[in-house]
Structures are given as C-alpha cells and as structure tokens.
Amino acid sequence: MIVVLARIRSPLGVRAMAAVAEASPAARPGYELTRFLILRLLGVVYFTAFLILLRQGDALIGHAGLLPADRFLARVLAAAGSRAVAVRELPTLFWLGCSDGALHAVGWIGLVLSAAVALGVTNALVQLVLWALYLSVAQVGQLFWGYGWEMQLLETGFLAVFLCPLRSLGPFPPTAPPVAVLWCFRWLIARIMLGAGLIKLRGDPCWRDFTCLIYHYETQPVPNPVSWWLNAAPRWFHVVGVAFNHLVELAAPFLIVGPRRARVVAGWLFVAFQVTLIVSGNLAFLNWLTIVPALACLDDRALGWRTRAVALPSRTHRAAALALALVVAVLSVNPMVNLLSPRQAMNRSFDPLHLVNTYGAFGSIGRERDEVVIEGTSDATVGPDTQWRAYELPCKPGDVGRRPCVIAPYHYRLDWQLWFAAMSTIDREPWLVRLVDELLHGDRDAKALFARDPFPDAPPRFVRIELYRYRFTGPGSAYWWSRTLVGEYLRPVGVDDGQLRAFLRSYDLDF
Predict the structure, then answer these.
(1) Residue 15: CB atoms within 10 Å
(2) How far is the C-alpha of 334 from the C-alpha of 102, rounded, in Å?
(3) What are the residue ranges of helices labelled H in 164-247?
(4) What count of other Cβ atoms lies within 10 Å of the Cβ of residue 406?
(5) Three-state secondary-structure class, residue 348
(6) What is the pLDDT of residues 241-277, one digit of tens each?
(7) Measured by CB atoms within 10 angstroms of the end CB, which terminus of the chain is less buried, N or C?
C-alpha cells in the first residue's frame, strides 16, 4: 500500500506515521506507479508522433509537399488581416519561421525530449515544451494532422504538465501527484468513452442492432492480419463484441465517480478494451494514447505496487493543479453541450489550444471497402494495350496477395487519408491531384511515401487512379483480398495536361 505523507523533519517521525498508516485499513492508496506509467506511455506516444513528423513531414507539409505548411500560414495571415489576430486564432511556433529546417528542428527536439520522458524523466517544463512543440505541428498539419487523436494528444499532454513537479527529473519524484490532476485525467477518459459510445448509437443503426462488427474488421482504415481472422468469425462473436463495446463506452464511465473498487473496475475495462482494439487493427497511436487517462483510474494498490512514503505536492503545485481543474471545468461546458446534443459532432475543439475537446470514433461503419489504386505507365500513348503498374503503399490494401501489416502505434498518414479519398471524388481531393503531379515529376519525397515505386529510374509518362472494391477472402484462400474494378477515379494525365495544371493553380498547388 502506498502512503502519502506530509513532509516531516524527523526521519523517525516519518517511519512512525508510515507504520500507523500501513496498519490502518482506511489508508488511502497512492499514485506513484500510476504517474510513472502514465508518463512513460505518453512519452512513447509523443516519440511516435515526432518520428512520424520527421519521416513524413517533408512530403506532406514541407515547402514542396502535398499541402505546404508555409503556404497555409500565408493564407491564414491573409484571412486574419493582421499577425496578432492570426497568432491568436492559430497559435504555433511556426509563425517564427516555417521552413523545412524548422520542421526538422521541432521534430528532433520533440523526439529527444519524448525519448527522455519514455526513459523516466519526470518534469513539468519538459512536458510543457513537448506540448507546445506538438501543438505547433498539429496547427499547421491541415488534412494530414486533422484526426481526433491529435487534439486528444494535446489535451492529454497539457494535463501531464501538471502531473509533474517542476524541480525534479527522476522517474519517482519525492512528492505525490496532485489528486486534482488525476481527476482531470479521469474526466478526459469519461468524455472519450461517452463521446465514442453516444456517436455510435446516434450515427449508425448497426450499433443498435449489434451488427457493426460484421463489417468493421474489413472496412476499417488499415486492417492487420488479425482483422482478417476476426472478419471470418461467426455472427454471435460480432454481437458479443458490440455488447462489450457498449458496456465499456456507455456504462463503465459512470463507475469512475463511484467507490474506489468501481473506479478500478472501470480502469481495467478501459485498458482491456483498448488492448482489443490494438490487436484487431492499425488505429495509429489512438488506442495507446487512450490508455494514458484510463490509467488514472488505477491506483498503486490496484497495480500491485508497494512503495515508499512520499510527501504531499508542494503548495504551489497544488494551487496550479486546482487552477487547472477550474480551467478544465469552465472549458468543459461546450464539449458537454455537444455530448448531450442529438446533433453531436465528433472530434471537435472549442478553443485554439485544444485544451478540452469532444471525441468520438466510428460513428458510422462502411458496408463496403473501396480503395483508390494509383497506377503509372511509361508508354508514349494511352490505349487499350497500355501497360499500367501500380504504386504500392506501406499498409493500405493494394496487391491482393500481400499480407496486411502491423504498424500501430506508428501511422502512415497518406495510407489513412487515401481511405477517406476512396469515399470522396477527385475534385474534392486537390492534394491527391498534387500527389499525381509529383509522381509525374519523379519527386523524391513523394515517392518515399510508397512501399513500392514501379518507376525507380524515370518518372511515368502518365498516371491514373482506379477505384476498386476490396473484400477479405476466407480461410483456405491463397490470397488475403479479392477485388473488383468499380471504375475510373482519375483519368490518365500527363505532366503537360492543361486541365491538370489549371486545377492545381486554382488551389495554389502548381509549383
């Protein structure tokens, strides 16, 4: 049992009070190991996020990328009318400079600091720097950093600042974490779960008739090999899965405000649920991140940890924690209104710093899986006999014989965005036309986004995009997928195609 004690000058006094507390059945469990696990896991998530920036940032939002961040900031500034207004509406360090070098600097600093946190560094200033760096990236990432887990990482990371003392670095500081901050984490996991559960009930009837998982494993953004096996499971298995989903997302959050044992049960349910999601698909670092606030429901006794006596947080630390709780309470009004609304929005921020947000996941489930397949040719003309070769992405379904990958918590952002593109049309996806143009020019950064470049020596003369419908095969098949052609998504275009150039110019992407 962990005992939290106030500072006492006499070591003998400390031992005596610890002994009394140990003997008391009413002794309150501590949260030293809980804080340790929260920060270490958060460090891993931050590390993954900054690694993604370093490996994919240039191609996606670099100066010559698909959606350049510097051009985005220029448009924001022009719309705002003044730099002061622009900075207030879109706070980011990249207002000081948004070159590729600045992106790299933010990425490397974030990578080093997050590695330090994962290895044990526990310090409020380090957490604050990590939060500010990732806020800066998310603000300029546009479409490719527009997912719900970006704002969830920012809210989680901001809470972590107040979980740490300011003057310590070691993994187990001499003072306990403030209880007010732990309750902010619990409030976060409650909103995440309830938001996801309610958006499902309101968004798709298959969640109400318990059939959504019949389709989910096949149609989720980036399946893994386990998804293939789960897709072949009997109907009753999927019905039980939906029932477990509803139990965790709609019932367990209310256990948080109950007695300690109820809160611990909720914590373990949250963690177990996220583990099942990690096993069954590639949802980037979302599920890993969601475990972080779930851990705040578990005290050290629940984790089987017995530690030394520690002092209460300093008066300044407790005051800061209470101020945080007040800010979170005030900023929770709009998310709660949204949560209770029949027109509930999914994954939305209500303040420019993304401090308190509303969340949701899979409010609707696709019944069919369509995929865009990018193909090129070196032939001089396009006709019935043209030989087309496909670009293969790292994880998105392409070659029907290729095994689905396991990458989470890492995230291939282009793969994920192409999943959305297949549900849209090319005129609504100008960044995808920009990608086609970069492939026609043999752009090195763009080609690095693919697992297989069929034109390593010279760029293709024409590129097209076809739309296919993919289905998982069943046990006994030599292939993982079967597919049928739905139709043309983008007609064949060459580098000098006038309509291609005009389309890109209209979106300020012809450069």
Answers:
(1) 12
(2) 34
(3) 179-203, 205-208, 213-219, 225-231, 235-246
(4) 15
(5) strand
(6) 999 999 999 999 999 999 999 999 999 999 999 999 9
(7) C
